[in-house]
């Protein structure tokens, strides 16, 4: 693997800004970063002149179901290879493969296949996004707020079924969405936390008190905030009120302009601050593909003008890529460094990997993007390998 020195106009780490920046990549990590004038070019290394571009960390997507026409529920190396290659083109260098509610055996098969892929990808030096683990979105959700999740496979939270999922994942489960008001949620949240998972409240009809109870018992995230949640009113603030007012909670946001309107996005950002919001895609197999019919788990969705809906017309994930999410948030008036933080450091911190992912720092994985003046991604390195 070649040693490369990237010379950029600036680097957003994202907690600081380095002007006339140099980033030295050796093998798959960042060996040095700072002003270019203070860095030497090692013998045999190549220097990339990108003095009109901004360097940022690679995007981390903690909620994505597929891309390039393939779905992570397929659970095989071919499908996951297509997904990871496609999203890397748009700057996503790490992700959580996100399941959808399905028959328990289907979820177990998918988890086992994703786990095997994660094990194998570390041995294969390929330029694509890294699957960091599994996000179980369902089946422990509310039937009332299920969105497009198949009602027949929704299950009451169960420590036994969770244990089966975790056994199949072989230590690679990282996040789980649970509706906190459903009978059995409390012990399931406790079991998930003990297993090292981040618990996210989502697909939920919980009231304010039920949500605060879940937070008190370890829930630390909110799945695609506003969507598939009990609506907010001034006398019934519900789960949204609890998410907006609880600093412990990281709020996912699908910033595609379809799932959440501009005013609601601004309210979330104002209430939570830039340190407590993570931009996600909720991308389906249709991501990076033309309009048409695609699969989400075991059911079909239709994509028209880039918007995914099921046969009943209900929104079914998105075709959003995280580079577009970045531009959309900046267009709301968010400073670029703070927008970058919501795609990099915040999800890394939620997962407890902020020293390895989500920032430009010595010793971190060399997941690096270059942005042009229009904030389009022009160059991508995933663990030190250039993505073409």
Keywords:
TIM Barrel; 2 domains; globular; seven-stranded mixed β-sheet; alpha/beta; eight-stranded parallel β-sheet; Urease, subunit C, domain 1; 388 residues
Describe the overall structure.
The chain has helices at residues 77-88, 104-121, 159-169, 185-194, 208-216, 238-245, 262-272, 322-330, 336-341, 345-351, and strands at residues 4-12, 17-26, 29-35, 46-57, 59-64, 66-67, 70-71, 92-99, 130-137, 173-178, 198-201, 221-222, 250-253, 277-279, 292-296, 299-304, 307-309, 368-371, 377-382, 385-386. By secondary structure, it is α/β, with parallel strands linked by helices. The protein folds into two domains: 4-56 and 364-386, Urease, subunit C, domain 1 (Roll); 59-351, TIM Barrel (Alpha-Beta Barrel). The longest helix is centred in the N-terminal third of the chain and has 18 residues, at 104-121. The two termini are 15 Å apart.
Q: What is the terminal-to-terminal distance?
A: 15 Å
Compute the CA-based radius of gyration: 20 Å
Helix content: 25-40%
Tell me the major beta sheet: 8 strands, parallel
Summarize the model shown.
The chain is an alpha/beta fold and 388 residues long.
SSE map:
Blueprint: E1 4-12, E2 17-26, E3 29-35, E4 46-57, E5 59-64, E6 66-67, E7 70-71, H1 77-88, E8 92-99, H2 104-121, E9 130-137, H3 159-169, E10 173-178, H4 185-194, E11 198-201, H5 208-216, E12 221-222, H6 238-245, E13 250-253, H7 262-272, E14 277-279, E15 292-296, E16 299-304, E17 307-309, H8 322-330, H9 336-341, H10 345-351, E18 368-371, E19 377-382, E20 385-386
Parallel strand pairs: 1-4, 5-8, 8-9, 9-10, 10-11, 11-12, 12-13, 13-14
Antiparallel strand pairs: 1-2, 2-3, 4-18, 6-7, 15-16, 16-17, 18-19, 19-20
